Structures are given as structure tokens and as C-alpha cells.
Amino acid sequence: MVSTSGTSDISSVGNTDVIVIGGGPSGSTVSTLIAQQGYKVTLFEREHFPRFHIGESLIPETYWVLKRLNMLPKMRKTQFVKKHSVQFVTEKGKLSEPFYFSDNKPHECSQTWQVMRSEFDHMMIKNAAEHGVQVHEGVRVLEVLFEGTRAVGVKVADERGNVRDVFASVVVDASGQSSMIMSRLGLREWDQELKKAALWTYWEDAYRDKGRDEGATIVLQTQGKKGWFWYIPLHNNILSVGVVADYSYLFKDRETKDHEAVYFEEVAKCPGLQPRLEGAKRIAPYRAAKEYSYRSREVAGDGWVLVGDAFGFLDPLYSSGVLLALRSGELAADAVVAGLREGDTSGAKLGAWGPNYIQGMERMRRLVCEFYNGFSFGKFVKLYPQLKGHLTDLLIGDLFDEKVDDVVEPMNHIRRLQAEKSAALPVE
């Protein structure tokens, strides 16, 4: 067993069945599930955990993957804030009807968590080691080794200066947004509609709701619907609060580029947020991420597969990032295990899960795009109360069931009505 602390020495690392690049949620998931089936898995992570990462809000469908990972007992023992719902606040500061997960699906899976990612990710990678994954932190993957179009291993370097080639039947790229294989093969496609950016920080003593609403993720629109804030209550009296808007609006078309000034200009445009920050103390620097929505043209190739952000990233709006990391890791793990058992590690075999996964990702993307195009949850539920359950299913992360497609035509109908209304307005 390789410790997940201290400095790794790779001089004695041998060949393995599967190499995983990156120890975030997707890498920890795929490696754990493959190791559970008795295969030798070696994971290389360039950083030492715990380390900072954004994306703190889980959604309920993560439950099923966490269960397979044997993570649920550990999660229940944490201080992580329990999350029961998501709530939306209009540009005028009006709270719409909350979406309580258990009202739609009365099961323990409907209670999830708001996590400090440094702690959650550390738990996940330690869990991988406990399941037999050979975890090496502080080790950089310099390149993925190919023989023709087939990935056959990686070249790695540790902090002591050791460099060596390690070979495997399958290489899983879970390297995050840097996505080594995607970048090498030129597979990245930027989302031309979701050219967003985010700016965030952390607060102490900000307002918290009580009872069932204490752990709710709150989405608050800014005036003119130019952007929105996330409001995520974490443990230890910490609140994660960030703004998302078009990249050009947030960072390019302004007189100031100072992050603090931009942040508070947007707070001033968000009447639902202002009272929540009264008396609060900022406890962290401002951080930014720009134009982050993309996807790979391929999910797998001969001897390689992409998972998590190494395949694609959607948008932080509905907190789908960790779910997509865990789900892609789970699906890829099952495909890798099947391929190893059958002696078939072709791209077709390793990527057989891709179409269904992408379809689920597209369902979430549609909901994201609708929001940015003026979609109102309150108006939708008022017009189609019978479909609130399906809308809640999407917010829960139940993305892989065709029943949720029942919301598509009503969304199209509302959009047509909006277009007709706009066309009827007099021209000034």
C-alpha cells in the first residue's frame, strides 16, 4: 500500500493493469471501482492532498456512486452541512418556491451535502488507497506514451528527480481541465453558447437559513438577469459566494479589472444577496475562472479513456460538476473492467458508455441554457405544476432517464410565448 502523505518515490514503481492520471473525484472513483474488481491500479497525482478546489455543492444522485465506493458511512460522520433543496431568488429579490428533493423522491438519497472540497477530495483519495489503489502524490505525469494510436503508459517524475516510464493496459485521464490526452490529440471543443466566467470568495458570519433550509444551495439572479450568484453554506461558519456571468460582461467590458471592485459591483446589483452579507467578514482572496465550458470530441480511444473534467465541464449553475465526475468515473470503470476481462481495450469498448452519458450531460446543458435565456422556474411550475417532479429530477441529477424529456416541449412553448410577446412590443 502506498501512503497518500509524504513524498512518493517512483523508482520502484512497476507496470500495472490501469494507470489513472489525477486523484480528484473522477480519478478516485474510477480507480477505486476498478481496484474493487481485483485489478492493479496505479494513480499519479501531481499535488499533495488536501488541496483547494471549487465545486462544493453535491446533488442527490451522487449518493449511488458514493454507495458503491463505500463512502457513505464516512460522509455521515463528517461535519459537512446537510443539503435538502435548491432555491432560486429572482432579480428583484423574491424567493421562488424551493425544490425539496425528498418531496419528489422520499429516499435517503435525497439528502446530500455541501462539502469543503479540500476535505472531500482528500477523503476520496484515501478511500481509493484503502481499496488497494497504489496512490502516488507529488508525482507529475510528463506525457502519455503511445504506440501508434494506442496509449500504452505514461512518463512520470517525482519530487526527488526520478523519471521513469510506467506501462499499463489502460490509461485513464482524470487530469482535470488540463486534460492531457484531450490537449495532445486536439479533441477539445469550446462551448460557443456558454462563454461564462466566475468570480468568488468565502465569508464568515453571513446569513444562514434555519431548519430544513439551512443547507440549501441558493441561486440569486442579478438585476437585468446579467448574471447570478451561488450561495453555499459550508461547515465551520463558512459561506461560499460567487458570481457567474458572460465572460465579456464580467471581465472585458468594464473600466476596472480589480476583482474586489467587480465583485461588489455585482453584489450591488443583487438585492437578494445584499442583506445576507450584512455583517459578514471576508476570509479568503478572490478567485476567478474564465471561459470554462468545453467537451472532448471523443470519450475514449484504444487504450485510453477520459473522465470528469478531462472529458468536459458544463457550468456551475446546478452543481452538476461532482456528479458528472463521479458518474463518468463509475461508467468508465465498468467499461475498463469489462474490457480487461474480455481482452478488448479498444476505444469502442472503453467508450461504450459515452453516448448515454453525453445524452445526460445534454439534458443538464439544456436546463442551463434555458436559465441563461430567461427561464423562470416559478413561471414554469405555475403553468405546468404536473411537471415539477421532472424538473426536480433534473435538479437532483437524474439525467439518464428519458422521462425527464417531458419538460422539453413545455420549455419550447414558453420560449415561443416569450418571443411572441417581445415581437408585439412597440418599437420606441
TrEMBL record:
InterPro entries: FAD/NAD-bd_sf (IPR036188), Flavin-dep_Halogenase_NPB (IPR050816), Flavin_halogenase (IPR006905). SUPFAM superfamilies: FAD/NAD(P)-binding domain (SSF51905). GO terms for molecular function: monooxygenase activity. Transmembrane segments: none annotated. PANTHER family: FAD-BINDING PROTEIN (PTHR43747), SLR1998 PROTEIN (PTHR43747:SF1). This is Tryptophan halogenase. It comes from Pirellula staleyi (strain ATCC 27377 / DSM 6068 / ICPB 4128) (Pirella staleyi). The lineage of its organism: Bacteria, Pseudomonadati, Planctomycetota, Planctomycetia, Pirellulales.
